[in-house]
Amino acid sequence: MTEVRSEETFDAIVIGAGPVGENVADRLVKGGLSTLLVEAELIGGECSYWACMPSKALIRPGVALNNARQLAGSREAINGQLDAQAVLERRNSFASNWKDDGQLEWVENAGISLRRGKAWLIAPRTVEIADPEAGTHLAHARQVVVLATGSVPTTPDIPGLAEISFWGTREATSSPRVPESLLVIGGGVAGTELAQAYARLGASVSQLMRGKLLAKMPEPARKLVAEGLAKDSVKLREGVSFRKVSRDSAGVHLELDDGEILQAEEILVATGRTPAVTELGLAALELSGFDGRRLRTDQSGKVDGTDWLYAVGDVAGKVLLTHQGKYEARITGDAIVARINGDFDGTAKDWGKYTQTADQYAVPSVVFTDPEIATVGRTVERAEQDGVKVTEVSLPIAVAGSSLYLDDYQGWAQLVIDADRNVIIGATFAGPDVAELLHSATIAIVGEVPLDRLWHAVPSYPTVSEIWLRLLEKLGL
Ligand SMILES: Cc1cc2nc3c(=O)[nH]c(=O)nc-3n(C[C@H](O)[C@H](O)[C@H](O)COP(=O)(O)OP(=O)(O)OC[C@H]3O[C@@H](n4cnc5c(N)ncnc54)[C@H](O)[C@@H]3O)c2cc1C
Ligand SMILES: NC(=O)c1ccc[n+]([C@@H]2O[C@H](COP(=O)([O-])OP(=O)(O)OC[C@H]3O[C@@H](n4cnc5c(N)ncnc54)[C@H](O)[C@@H]3O)[C@@H](O)[C@H]2O)c1
């Protein structure tokens, strides 16, 4: 162990001040626990500076422009392209110029103690922190340690990749310039959103993937996004594998397995993320809830085999989304306080205050491409695996509200029904700006609203929400 300069004790220690760590620390302080939050980089985490916020800021102006182009009357007023520099500058402000003063102020006002530096566990309830200014610091937790360390990108095993500089999502979301040409590896959410954003900012983009584009999404929804990418001249290459990659003064050269060589100024690798568990000292603690790669927790976030360690957000590996991680954080924070106060014995209860039930049955997520895909709950396949008797209903989105919204609006919607219980258990909407439709479906699923009651939820005329009525009519209501 390195020489320890200082030492202090709190009720709780939270490692990682991303959106999830901030939320769990807030709940703990509100529950009366003195809480230390430790952050190695910027308070606010990946989401604020290199993920959700900057990526959505890169995407949004292109969507607004495309919408205006899709309407007779406003189309005629457009006489230029996106101003890439203005988009990048607006993005900078959404990433707070990569400074965390605003978040620091929030932490201080919330009554949370903060220490900067990289933290790891050296014993149960004992954390060592390499504070860049104060030196090595030791922090003890009287009650609990919460891991909220997020996730790290996974890098594919492409020969040559380790020897060259390449963009990950961090570089793509924070780049001060738009490359002339960009190769994107990965057909998931991050790769697809960023491929379209950069194409609209003026780059010539090819997106390559070993499987299909957005493979987990229903086919009609994937098809709409593929058509949207094609309109933006993104060259899609599905089902390819990579022989090697290199870089020289002309740029990046990517050789495919069939011998074809693609060249571009820059390459973005967006091939998924994995929980950030490796540098936390977990292996030495020999926890039954840690297998070397993954933590196993109960539905309140407590790591199996311990009574003092919790994991929330990306590091817990259940759902890698900000809003769901923050939901886990609220439940875990409240569960910790309730356990200490003797108000919670640890028994999971579906939809109970201390059980992360939505992680299993009602995770909403949006692919912020143009058109968007918004999905919540279970797919037909997943519901069938769960042994549910499924009824599925789907339709193109073609209602008065959608035709008014955009000329030639192309969309698709699907509901997945538990036929025995007569309730919705999954929904997907694909089309321009469907993200705001999603919460209606989330509420219907979480509320387990019977279809014959949902029949009385009348969508306003003329809105895109009228698709709800068409879907219920198709179900025979
Ligand atoms: C390009 C991209 C776009 C995305 N867009 C969206 C979106 O639109 N909507 C959405 O819901 N999700 C989105 N996500 C996912 C979202 O970013 C994550 O789910 C979210 O950031 C997870 O929050 P977290 O607090 O668990 O982890 P993080 O945000 O990763 O925060 C973890 C924090 O812990 C700190 N840390 C790690 N180890 C230590 C240590 N040992 N000591 C001290 N500090 C440590 C890190 O520095 C970091 O600040 C996106 C992801 C990517 C990559
Ligand atoms: N709008 C949003 O909510 C949003 C946006 C971006 C990212 N995210 C989250 O961030 C996380 C990371 O996003 P992502 O798109 O990188 O992950 P992902 O898991 O969605 O997609 C990964 C892609 O990389 C491919 N891939 C994986 N390993 C590969 C390999 N060895 N060689 C070639 N291809 C490989 C996969 O086939 C897939 O196409 C996801 O969990 C996602 O939920 C969310």
Describe this structure in words.
The protein has 477 residues and is an alpha/beta fold. The protein has 3 domains: 4-49 and 95-152 and 275-358, FAD/NAD(P)-binding domain; 161-271, FAD/NAD(P)-binding domain (3-Layer(bba) Sandwich), CATH 3.50.50; 371-474, Enolase-like, domain 1. The protein is 31% helix and 25% strand. Strand 9, helix 8 (219-231) and strand 10 (235-237) form a beta-alpha-beta unit. The model has no long low-confidence stretch (mean pLDDT 97). The protein binds flavin-adenine dinucleotide and nicotinamide-adenine-dinucleotide.
Cα-based radius of gyration, to the nearest Å? 24 Å
Mean pLDDT: 97
**Through-space gap between termini:** 69 Å
- Would you tell me the structural class of the helices and strands? alpha/beta
Q: Give the name of the CATH superfamily of the largest domain.
A: FAD/NAD(P)-binding domain
- The shape is globular
CATH architecture of the largest domain: 3-Layer(bba) Sandwich
Compute the number of strand runs: 21
CATH domain topology of the largest domain? FAD/NAD(P)-binding domain
CATH class of the largest domain reads: Alpha Beta
Helix content: 25-40%
Bound molecules: flavin-adenine dinucleotide, nicotinamide-adenine-dinucleotide
Q: Could you tell me the strand content as a percent range? A: 25-35%
Number of domains: 3
Low-confidence stretches: none
Q: Number of helical runs?
A: 16
* Major beta-sheet overview: 7 strands, mixed
